[in-house]
Design a protein that fits this description.
Blueprint: H1 10-16, H2 37-41, H3 51-57, H4 78-82, H5 92-98, H6 119-123, H7 133-139, H8 161-165, H9 175-181, H10 202-206, H11 216-222, H12 238-244, H13 265-269, H14 279-283, H15 312-316, E1 356-357, E2 360-361, E3 374-375, E4 383-388, E5 394-399, E6 411-413, E7 420-423, E8 427-436, E9 442-451
Length: about 450
Amino acid sequence: MDCDGDGVTNGDEIADGTDPLDECDLVVASQTVPPSAAWEALDCDGDGVTNGQEVIDGTDPVDPCDFILANQDTTPTAAWEALDCDGDGVTNGDEVADGTDPLDSCDLVWTSQTVPPSQAWIDGDCDGDGVTNGQEVVDGTNPVDPCDYDPLSQDIMTISEEWEALDCDGDGVTNLDEILDGTDPLDFCDFILESQTVPPSQEWLNADCDNDGLSNGDEVTIGTDPLDPDTDGDGVNDGDEVSDGTDPLDICDFVFDSQTLPPSEEWEMLDCDGDGVPNGDEVDPIEGDESTDPTDPCDFNWEDQDLTIVTEEWLNLDCDGDGIPNGDEVGDDDGDGLPDYEEENNGDITEDDNLEVFDIMTPNDDGLNDVFVIRGIHRFPNNNLEIFNRWGVKVYGTQGYGQGDNFFRGYSDGRATVERNELLPVGTYYYVLNYVNANGETKQLAGPLYINRR
């Protein structure tokens, strides 16, 4: 017989040590006869699931923590509500109120923890962030938020794949890539730009990681580096370039007065204005005391200039405003040590082949007309100059006049009756210049030359 209708015979109940008159005092494994309908309608363990349903589910009708949550069809008992079936430190009743699963130890509102959690829960890592639940409680971080943890407590050998795929700081770089890159997965301004593989957060887009006056989102749109305030290295921060209307991606497009950052080594070696002086030498000149503007091709110290690197555009300019392009004035036809393109009125473009002969010289070392000046002769190195006194005696002759330091300074070169290095007397002389012009034509200029030493 089964007096209490629990499906266990009286004899088996006596053998099991259970009460044959208490329908909820039984060993489920000893059920050998069909239980009564009354027993099936009961909820012996108070878990909210009737005994009959637990039999169908294969759960234990006398174990309040062995049930299928979806099949709760009656109100659980207060005793069940006070239990913590999953050991997460939150009572079943609070889990029901919070809408979390009382059978899932990692489904909880952690601020609802009111009872000591189990050792298994303490040793676990619900959010997969590499920090155990127990340590998160000690640290005051959320054990079910994978992005709320103390990096000092993290064991990267135990992080989950789900955590690796997250982007905790919203910088567009996954947590795993940040670990591989050696950057901080919790600092959205500590990342490697090339590692961005996921869309960054709106918070990141609105931030300005490099403090250049442009939001990260604007920098993404423009194409500048949100971690470098001066993407092109010209010494002007990206925000100022946008304000100035210059291109923050063009190293030679900037306003010189807006430079507030040290420019890059690349910028210092470039010659942005094409004047033959590197930018770095314009800002910190080798010769001279004053810096010049690396964006103005006519503002430079000629002593620092390398004519082999000037641009075609610079050669076509007329820096001294005398109507002659710089390219036609790269010599020093008056021998005063100053390039002709630095001196105004340094030639006459109306003269044949743009050669202008100054027929008076005053070799008195005052720096003015100390040599026989033939403007533009430097452009025709294939030339021959001869100078004769009034009696037709040659007192000077040279090839390649005006090349380098080859100038007539009023001294004889020792021809005929006039001794070498002798200072020629004041008077009128005659010159004959033969040269080959740019068209390959041999031409001659001749005329008087007056020497005066006043």
